[in-house]
Amino acid sequence: MVKRKILEYIGMTVGSFLIAVALTVFLVPNRIAAGGISGLATVIYYLTSFPIGITMLVINIPIFLASMKIMGTGFGMKTIYGIITFSLFTDLLQPNVVALTDDLLLASIYGGVLAGIGLGIVFRSRGTTGGTDMIATLINYFTGITVGEGLLIADGIVVILAGIFFNLEAALYAAVTIFITSQTIDVVQEGLHIKKAVLIISDHSEEINKKIVNELNRGTTKFKGEGGFTGRDKSVLMSIISRSEVSSLKKIVAEIDKEAFVVISNANEVIGEGFADIAEKI
């Protein structure tokens, strides 16, 4: 337990550093206010020259206290640590780094990717750097709007402010950065090894099952189903396979039953025997 906590704080530290690098090297120098408290702090910085890290800290503290009062002390030390670490790294880096590019597209792409990696690491470490996720939770509490919609509203307001105080182009690039960041967070949290979930409905499910188990070395689960149109009993097989095994599985099914009904979809995360250890994902 202690080792895990230490690793989580190390992860939060590394993630916060990467977000601060994205902010100070790519986003702030190019006036890209990509949503969140950091985006709002960027707008304020260009209007007042007030340090971005301190601004984020000042804005986050009352939001944190309100969140803790309403939703209990579950936010705890890790949230405080994330807020302070991110703010500190930002103000330490900003005077000592230079922008790597003045191309707005490159800055929005690389800033978004780097921020997404950092946030993904922070989230995987069960932490947060404060900001709009807390605002979205408060919006949800007071209005019933979902957290996802709350995030969209909070980030949207910051992007609009960027458009007003900077220019429309800066706001458009900020929206690009937000999208890239969100996609990168998903990749970091879910990993690149996306599996495929397969459902097979066939009158020859036993033969197909044996082939999957023996040739692909994959487990299966059997369900009993009923055709909604015909009312006939149906056998349904479910299996999880890798992307490289999709063509082999389709070949197996086609050889045995050309009339089989097959559904193949992405399984973003698979936990259990033969895959990730569930203890590592809790």
TrEMBL record:
<dbReference type="InterPro" id="IPR003740">
    <property type="entry name" value="YitT"/>
</dbReference>
<feature type="transmembrane region" description="Helical">
    <location>
        <begin position="79"/>
        <end position="98"/>
    </location>
</feature>
<dbReference type="GO" id="GO:0005886">
    <property type="term" value="C:plasma membrane"/>
</dbReference>
<keyword id="KW-0472">Membrane</keyword>
<feature type="transmembrane region" description="Helical">
    <location>
        <begin position="135"/>
        <end position="164"/>
    </location>
</feature>
<dbReference type="Pfam" id="PF02588">
    <property type="entry name" value="YitT_membrane"/>
</dbReference>
<protein>
    <recommendedName>
        <fullName>DUF2179 domain-containing protein</fullName>
    </recommendedName>
</protein>
<dbReference type="Pfam" id="PF10035">
    <property type="entry name" value="DUF2179"/>
</dbReference>
<dbReference type="InterPro" id="IPR051461">
    <property type="entry name" value="UPF0750_membrane"/>
</dbReference>
<feature type="domain" description="DUF2179">
    <location>
        <begin position="218"/>
        <end position="272"/>
    </location>
</feature>
<feature type="transmembrane region" description="Helical">
    <location>
        <begin position="104"/>
        <end position="123"/>
    </location>
</feature>
<feature type="transmembrane region" description="Helical">
    <location>
        <begin position="7"/>
        <end position="28"/>
    </location>
</feature>
<dbReference type="InterPro" id="IPR015867">
    <property type="entry name" value="N-reg_PII/ATP_PRibTrfase_C"/>
</dbReference>
<keyword id="KW-1133">Transmembrane helix</keyword>
<feature type="transmembrane region" description="Helical">
    <location>
        <begin position="43"/>
        <end position="67"/>
    </location>
</feature>
<keyword id="KW-0812">Transmembrane</keyword>
<keyword id="KW-1003">Cell membrane</keyword>
<dbReference type="InterPro" id="IPR019264">
    <property type="entry name" value="DUF2179"/>
</dbReference>
